[in-house]
Write a structure and sequence with these properties.
The complex is a heterodimer of chains A (about 550) and B (about 210). Chain A is an all-alpha fold and about 550 residues long. Chain A contains 15 helices and two strands. Chain B contains three helices and ten strands. Classes of the chains: A mainly alpha (about 550), B alpha+beta (about 210). Bound molecules: copper (II) ion (CU).
Chain lengths: ~550, ~210
Amino acid sequence: MTTLNVPINEGNGNHLDYLHSPKKYKGILNWILSTDHKKIGILYLISMLTFFSVGVFFGFLMRLELISPGKTIMEPQTYNQIFTLHGVIMIFLFIIPGLPAVFGNFFLPIMIGAKDVAFPRLNLFSWWLFITGGLVALISLFLPGGPADTGWTFYIPYSVRTSTNVIPALIGAFILGFSSILTGLNFITTIHRLRAPGMSWFKMPLFVWSLYATGWVQILATPIVGITLLLVAIERWFGVGIFDPSLGGDPILYQHLFWIYSHPAVYIMILPAMGVISEIIPVYARRTIFGYKFIAFSSLAIALFGSLVWAHHMFTVGMSDTAMWIFSLLTFLVAIPSAIKVFNWVSTLYKGSILLEPAMLFALSFIFNFTIGGFTGLMQGALALNIHIHDTSFIVAHFHYVMFGGTGFGIFAALHHWFPKMFGKMYNKKVAKLSWLFLFIGFQLLYFPLFIAGYLGMPRRYYDYLPEFHIWHFISTIGSWILITGLIIMFTNLIIALRKGAKAPANPWGGVTLEWSIQSPPTHENFEVIPVIENEPYDYSHFEEKEEIKN
Amino acid sequence: MILNASNFVKEVDGVFLFILGISLFLLVLITVLMVVFVIKFNRKRNPRSKNIKGNMALEIIWTVIPTLLVVGMFYYGWYGYKKMTAAPKDSFEINVTGRMWVWEFTYPNGRKTDTLVVPINKPIKLNLNSLDVNHSFFIPAFRIKKDVIPNKNNYLWFISNEVGVYDIACAEYCGLRHSYMYSKLYSLHQNEFEKWYGSVSDTVSLKTGK
Ligand SMILES: [Cu+2]
């Protein structure tokens, strides 16, 4: 037996958990000045979910406007600003920080047997940057001229010509970029330096591997967006023609620089979610993961190839044939490590002992949605076909299948999996499953029709549309209502659990990674004694039934 | 709806159906396996799991087969795309100007219109230019699209196969009235086209159907 399977603390409340440990400050200061990685994780969770609800609200308004052709509830200018806000909030304030900043902060140190991240104060600083960047980006809501109406890509020359407030959004993105870089740096250092004795690289949980790959992308790709924004500022203030064609600049150069960052950012968004799925499936299938090393290395392969495919967002701008085929081929190659992951996850179910708890339902629907998102991504990688579906609602459907059906469902899976550990409370599992059902059905109805409309020629970012697309938009809007009902049920259930939920045991699901060996919620220090690791991360061969608490 | 409106439709739809077929097969396979495993190996029926750590043969199979499939998809897509860039030398050239939020077409004889009129069965080359921001010239029924960017000489070409009226849309977001930046393309028989091209009237008399 190893320390892995022996709970150090039975979670009987003998030790003060991190929520109740002695405090330096009182009230909110105790939170926003804390350098405890767990409290910072919770801070991110609260701020991220706040931004998420704002983003969902804007999405809801867009879908409502599109329920029928012509004006429904708003003017075109308002619609253009709302889809920009929706994109900026969801991408920069929800999906990018989502898993690494919330669950990475909370669980990365615990999963490798550490007491905190390598640089706790830098970690708190990253959160402050995140909040500052978010507020700066949203300040334009209250300025004359209103928020940007450019789309989250801020393409030049339109973003130079518009009278709306583009600059606050760009400065916000600049600050958020630093938050992301510092978090990546912190995690990479933590993984290199703070692993518990015996935890070799191939004994690390796969969520840690995915955060490691993500960290490198954050450090290497994010500075590009900073440089780009700096160039935009130089162009605006000194009139040096860089991107703006009216000054002799090249708008295509802007698109290249934008996507050199923003495409790898897609992998910052999806890789940690893949890591979460790799954690969840072994726990509820109660067996070791299939193909550990293949899953670990495929994360690195995705990070590497994913950084070299940015121009596949630009197949219609008029690039040389050589650039076209190279970017197309590389795009197809990214599919291979992704496929390897999916096949290994499905094989992990084989001969398992499976319990369909809420987190498992979300994880399995991640695989389904991500597979659809991946296959439709292949369609866009094929050059002849890309020309037709580029900039149509087909693309909108595709990236929502990856970002929401994938990463979003991954976040919901992580939330249900780790909630008892983070807060020491148990939620109502039946209600959680009901919310999953609403979310899953609502999601398909909301986004699948957009594939069809897109192939039939429905362009994206359209305030109005031809009557022939009405049916698809109508179904999609109905889907958005079902999806939002699911969100309301899910969050209400979790909030009720926070207040009135039954006390959660240390290991409610029967996990064998380190976070399940300590009490729920963890103590301030995580571990009384730093554990010594001997087993592989998902070793169920010694698993004892009695450790599982009755459901 | 006309199913073979331009010389690119078969190519593009062919790539689509090829990838769609493979995708559907694999999606059904993955989903069915998940459902079957969840039912067959649920905890009541199968209280003891078996710890299988991996299988080298399987890993090789599901690396090699997807590699072959995606290289096939890549090639099919590239092959179709190459035709789209190779405008024949004898194409009939028309200049297209995009600006917020209208299209303007200038013919070799100097004639300017706000709808595009072309003869069928003849290669047409459109030289694209923008006066302000980025736009994208998109004819859904023809399966072609190209961005229209200031100071950049983009072009696209096609052969219209059948007489008819088709939508032209702007596919690159360009501001307030982006979603209204539509125009029409009229494909006419050669003799009808010449009659129109030689006349001064801007009205297009059109015989739809065959
Ligand atoms: Cu336009």
